[in-house]
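[step 3/7] fold_predict: job queued, chain A
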Amino acid sequence: MHQMNNIIESLRQELIRNADEKTKKSGERFFKEPVTLYGLKSAMVASIGKEYYKKLKESCKPYVFGLCEELWKSGMLEETFIACNWSYNIRKQYTPSDFVIFEKWINNYINNWASCDTFCNHTVGTAVEMYPDKINVLKRWAKSSNRWMRRASAVSLIIPARDGNFLNDIFEISDILLVDSDDMVQKGYGWMLKSATKRWQKEVFDYVIRNKALMPRTALRYAIEKMPADLKIAAMAK
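[step 4/7] structure written:
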């Protein structure tokens, strides 16, 4: 515990040393929801996180996840990005039970789209590809009252969707989220559908046409963004 505190404290001092007010102010303007941040450019955050991770290289997963938990708890945007990277770095040690931890982090700590997407695109997405039956966890998240859990259910499948995986599950999650009134959720599942168009353009187009009377325009526009002009026109037509 003492070593853990030392690493976190040292990391925080490094973030403070490299922060500046101008980056902080522009970062705050970037989000609709209130976020707390030190004020570092993302490349610098990644670089600092990488340097500190070298000290953990041979560490076991519970220790790394314990550090991630501390970083998530802080609520500082840059610390959440480092937590996302560290939890992804240890992906070879993932087990199915890790979904309990991932769900806790999303539910308790995530409060903006950037932390949500960074965590879910990589950590959760990779875990789902490793343990495909855990897709049912995402379907449960899609029914959550927490907007970030609902967004997580979709954005966790961005990379698997691009690779042509989980198409039926993608449509099932889209069905659950179809008429969601939250724009963050609409953008999330629209993005998931857009990713699926890389391998399944016709199937996604047919899904959009079938559901366009109910689908919010925000979700629809995201879903068709990469389609050819003629399909976009057909999808957008009243």
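[step 5/7] annotate
Residues 1-93 form one domain.
The chain has two domains: 1-93, 114-238.
exit 0
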